[in-house]
Design a protein that fits this description.
The protein has 465 residues and is of the alpha/beta class. The chain folds into 2 domains: 380 residues, Alkaline Phosphatase, subunit A (3-Layer(aba) Sandwich); 78 residues, Arylsulfatase, C-terminal domain. A hairpin with a 2-residue loop joins strand 5 and strand 6. Helix 6 runs parallel beside helix 8. The protein is globular. The strands form 3 sheets. Strands 1, 2, 3, 4, 7, 8, 9, 10, 11 and 12 form a 10-stranded mixed β-sheet that branches. A 4-stranded antiparallel β-sheet has the order 13-14-15-16, with helices on one face. It has a two-stranded antiparallel ribbon with strand order 5-6. It contains 12 helices and 16 strands.
Amino acid sequence: MKMNPWLLTCLLAVFSAGTANAAVPQSPNIILILSDDQGYGDLGCYGAKDLDTPVIDRLAADGIRFTDAHVTAPQCGPSRCGLMTGIHQQRLGFEANVDDKYAWSFGFQDGKTTTVAALLKDAGYRTGMVGKWHLGEPLDSQPFANGFDCCRYMRGGMGYFWPANLGEQQTWGQKSHKPGWWGDRFRNEKDEVVPWTEGYITDVFTDKAIEFVSAKKTDDRPFFLYLAYNAPHWRLEAPQEIIDRFATIEDPVRRTFAAMVKSMDSNIGRLLAKLDELGIRDNTLIVFLSDNGAPSSGAGYNAGSNGPLKGAKGSLYEGGMRVPMIFNWPARLKAGQVAEWPVISLDLLPTFLAVAGAATPEEKDGTNLLPGLLPEVAGKGPAHVLRWRYLTSWARQYAIRDGDWKLVSPKTGMVELYRMSDDIGEQHDLSSEYPEVRDRLSRDLDTWMDTLPERPKWIDKLHGE
């Protein structure tokens, strides 16, 4: 029988790595699932009434649901940089999505940074990446150059279908003709184009993820899989038979959005079924989160919901960077728990290294969450301060979260203060009532920003022309 070439590549990569750093048998498999532009209110377990997400809801019910989880940026590229490196992306000059004019010249990698995949690989893990990468075009910024043995990924955004008419896409009455462009973006660990001529990309990504985990049949090393769906990011496309299930949703944009989320949920169910079949579900840590909040109406609008939160994608109000996050690990985590204390995506790298029995390099900015989750969720989480800076060609925003207090500067000259325990929607600015808190957080934020590069690297090039 001819072996699947994807499976063969993964196995060869594992065997060539040798056994010197093999992890102990008890080390869990780790699957990090990232959705794209999915808002805080876009899951049943986070309050959505019109969506159908039974698989993800079950992950939450059987695990830990975080209600105060954040990402490092309200935009996909920098958010993914913080997630993969475990350090504030501003330190790498990758503060915002790169201007299209320089997208082919700039990436996240500065030649010194290690990713969570590289560190887990050193700990004896087999590493795979499937889905949307979006961390730049240079080769040294690709997943295969940063710790991932096996890759089936796209470098940036792309459509959801690859029809016979060479990539012609139909979205809300508008067509774009880009012959060859969509398919050429889907690549492997050798930077070769992965043939993709049919099928819905959410299904295709899941097929590749299942092939990766299936290598467990012949190699018992623990694995790390980063499965980054591009759903439900605009452009809005889904199989018509799934869209038809949501006929009761009057808004056609929300209806297609619901179908995209449903497809992702069902595909995660397919992956879980494979883990059950392989007998490895119990000792697999699964983490689900979104890369940022849902966008507001306008360019890129996907009809997502940020629930009770103020702001949207591109904003340092909670709607831009507070996201759904779920931990599920049947062998270790007690089911049915809720963690209400603030965490940030930077915390995932040290947490994953802790479950793998590996040390976290001192350069990393996150905090290991395990002490607050085992044996049960603690009443208080790690006492770390969360900080954000978001500088783009169109925005200058800053924010800091210390315990119950959040200070945010949504634009130059504005400073607002909120007490998050009773004002999740950031409706009551308390900056004039608590000037000592406002000033303390402002000083902390200024001190932190003094340690960062003045602006994103690609903006320096813009200014130099």
